[in-house]
Amino acid sequence: MITAQQAVDIALAEARRLGRADETIVLVTDRMDASLRWANNTMTTNGESTGRTTTIISIVRQGDNACVGSVRSGSVSPGVITDLVAASQQAAAVAPHARDAAPALPGADAPPDWDAPVPGTGAEVFGDVAGALSRGFRGGSAGGDTLFGYARHIVETTFIATSNGLRRRFTEPTGSVEINAKRAGASAWVGVGTPDFAAVPTDPMLEQLATRLSWARRIIEMPAGRYETIMPPSTVADMMIYLSWMMGGRGAQEGRTALAARGGGTRVGEKLTSLPLTLYSDPGAAGLECAPFVATASSSERASVFDNGLEIERVDWIRDGVINALSYPRSAAAEFDAPVTVGADNLLMTGGQDSLQDMIAGTERGLLLTTLWYMREVDPAVLLLTGLTRDGVYLVEDGEVTAAVNNFRFNESPLDLLRRATQAGVSELTLPREWGDWATRAQMPSLRIPDFHMSSVSQAQ
């Protein structure tokens, strides 16, 4: 297997030799993946894999227009690269004009680590987690708790090179640990994201699970309705991440999304909440670092292949409770006279001073909603989402958790949740339950919602 750098050089050389494209963009991502699974208080499987994805993007210019051909392969054979280049150039030759055409980015020298070996990972990173789980297995067997779960660690190194001389490289480690615990028909879930497994709080996670299962010694049935609800950071992350995915500028400008203003234009500048909440992405956020440049194999309303290699900076999507920015690749920004705005692969929101326990203590009667599940969009015009609760909805009475309650189906919009929120807790690193396979880098506060809509009772367990 040749190095990623060699693959880049071969692709660019073949593109020059064929000469049927005005510009060529090469993306090569090397990925190493390690995983660990456990069930019924027993380690079951672990594994490691190595892979590479190579994308060749050919651009044919026709005055102010451009045609694009993008071809991708997971093969690591050097012989495949020349075929990819030929296929990409052929695709560009017959493609329609690209709606997101933009000028080529200027060249940029290769970073100092361009030629360095690609870092990896392996099952050994799970040593501390596995040790803590083993102790939990023994304690769980004695106490009747049964543990299930999954840990993964992925290290991806992405190289971008263009025929214009631009060079970018970034290594992005991504990890998570999710643990389910069951006891006498009750279940609970906790999860954390981690880039390096250097300090995963496995023992505190197991203690948290034991506490939640103890709350379920009493289980009561409650009807559908609107309840004062405390949303811990994980559930807030699931809602806000989906909101961030829907904050494309073009869709709002064309009146197709919940960020479109009545009568035309967008809702940028509208005040959502009196709470001083700022929702932002930042590739340099401590503990949530991610690629500081665009790397995409295909165009969408939030990213363009023409912007590959473009630097990404912090973006305040909502600032002090006011909608502040929408996502615009360079082409859309020029079309709608808006600033170029591209989000990083993380999401953070500021909060207040109260801990989750403080918020529980200040609740006369309400629900503690620990996880969301199976979320789907119902109405894009208002960004209404539906989904299920799972693995832990609890009743809070007079400042204490007194019981577990049945599961519900909910109907809520993240925009409307922000409008109605009356309290925000401390902002903490968290792992979203629903979107954790795609978005592990999040920091969110807990939120108090005075009338969270549990639209029906769910039989899901």
From TrEMBL:
Residue ranges of domain Metalloprotease TldD/E C-terminal in the record: 225-455
Entry GO MF terms: metallopeptidase activity
Domain of life: Bacteria
One biological process term in Gene Ontology: proteolysis
Pfam families, A to Z: PmbA_TldD_3rd (PF19289)
Record InterPro entries: Metalloprtase-TldD/E_C, TldD/PmbA_N, TldD/PmbA_sf
Protein name as catalogued: Metalloprotease TldD/E C-terminal domain-containing protein
Lineage, opening ranks: Bacteria, Bacillati, Actinomycetota, Actinomycetes, Mycobacteriales
